[in-house]
Specification:
- It is a single chain.
- By secondary structure, this protein is an alpha+beta fold.
- It has 2 domains: 234 residues, Naphthalene 1,2-dioxygenase Alpha Subunit, Chain A, domain 1, CATH 3.90.380; 114 residues, Rieske [2Fe-2S] iron-sulphur domain (Rieske Iron-sulfur Protein, 3-layer Sandwich), CATH 2.102.10.
- It is built from 11 helices and 17 strands.
- Strands 2-10-9-5-4-3 form a 6-stranded antiparallel β-sheet, with no helix packed on it.
- The protein is globular, with a radius of gyration of 22 Å.
- The structure holds FE2/S2 (inorganic) cluster and fe (ii) ion.
- FE2/S2 (inorganic) cluster binds next to loops.
């Protein structure tokens, strides 16, 4: 049988500042970027999100509408908020000369200046397109954003296939944040293959038997799902947990693991009891901030004695193993002697990602 071999991306595509600049323009700022989960943004508050080097404020006004805008004061250009922990109290005051903005971005106060000095109506914060889908808040920094539905159709088919899980009704119970010294694409590629699983994830292959074969999905299951050991319902050290199954799932989904990528910067893992959202915030060609959010049904979180630690601890263990090898790859592909690596038949999802990435970038070769 003829072997299937494709080259990986090139050293430049993993390491070069010029390629990263093009990614910022074409992908992270040119398309739709997963920014946060809506339930982590309280009414009357705002969060600061880094979209590949552009600081964006996302606010929920008192009427429950979500807005996004540049984190830049219209007066003399000061950054408005440095972090999520600055207080807002329903409005945003610039720390420099105290210009104050409503959470919908309107300029509402300019101390020591009056209407003849400043036309407030013309000085709202620079707005950014925002779209909420199933509790995921996406932003687009493009001057003329593509329709969100069109972007989703092209880049989010796997996530669309999880619509029946009712992700919009789940809540984040635990959030973790990790600085990974690797290119964001190395993290995606690692997520999409399991030739490393037996070697890198001894605990994971115990609960996902098919991963011992090197496949990252079950070739015997046309629905794309993966069966957990003993028909377990959770990513945990035993493959199961005592937490209740997500509302509305049938028996098959309750005992199935499914993973979905949402190009470019997030992926979602669902089991019977929880959904884990991983969002990448690229900081440069060789540095990615990874935020992981553990979501459960609100009734599960509200119940006495709710304890998600067996799921969180297990997933963080697997993630740390992954990030370790991703950083190792980053160090390797930085070598001047590296040309390209090799992708084989069991890397078919990675091959698909490489092709999708290059199509989106408008480059057929690295
Ligand atoms: S720069 Fe913001 S109020 Fe002056
Ligand atoms: Fe892995």
């Amino acid at each position: 049988m003829a072997s299937v071999q494709h080259p990986t991306l090139t050293s430049a595509e993993y390491c070069s500042p010029e390629v990263y600049e093009r990614e910022r323009r074409v992908i992270f700022h040119g398309g739709w970027f997963m920014a946060l989960r809506a339930d982590t943004l309280a009414k009357g508050n705002r969060r600061v999100i880094d979209v590949a080097g552009e600081s964006i404020l996302i606010a929920r006004d008192l009427d429950d509408r979500i807005h996004a805008y540049a984190n830049v004061c219209r007066h003399r250009g000061a950054r408005l908020c440095e972090s999520d922990s600055d207080s807002t109290q329903g409005s945003l005051m610039c720390p420099y000369h105290a210009w104050t903005y409503a959470l919908d971005g309107r300029l509402i106060a300019t101390p020591h200046l009056d209407a003849t000095d400043v036309d407030k109506d013309a000085m709202s914060l620079w707005s950014v397109a925002v779209h909420v889908w199933e509790g995921f808040v996406f932003v687009s920094l493009a001057k003329e954003p593509v329709l969100f539905a069109d972007w989703m159709e092209l880049h989010g088919q796997e996530l669309l296939a999880l619509e029946r899980y009712g992700l919009g009704g789940l809540q984040v119970a635990v959030t973790t944040r990790t600085e990974v010294r690797a290119n964001w694409k190395i993290i995606v590629e690692n997520y999409q293959e399991c030739l490393h699983c037996t070697r890198v994830h001894p605990e994971l292959v115990e609960i996902v038997p098919v991963y011992r074969t090197g496949w990252v999905y079950d070739p015997e299951r046309p629905d794309g799902g993966v069966t957990l050991k003993d028909h377990g319902n959770s990513f945990s050290i035993t493959g199961t947990s005592s937490l209740p199954v997500l509302p509305g799932l049938d028996d098959l989904d309750a005992t199935t693991y499914r993973g979905a990528t949402m190009f470019p910067n997030s992926f979602v893992d669902v089991t019977g009891t929880s959904a884990i959202v991983t969002t990448m915030y690229p900081q440069g060609p060789d540095h990615t901030t990874v935020v992981t959010e553990y979501m459960f049904a609100p009734s599960t979180i509200a119940a006495d004695g709710f304890d998600p630690s067996e799921i969180v601890d297990f997933s963080e263990l697997v993630a740390a193993q992954d990030f370790g090898v991703c950083e190792r790859v980053q160090r390797g592909v930085s070598s001047s002697l590296f040309t390209t690596g090799v992708l084989t038949a069991k890397d078919d999802l990675v091959i698909g990602f490489v092709e999708h990435y290059r199509r989106t970038m408008g480059t057929t070769e690295g």
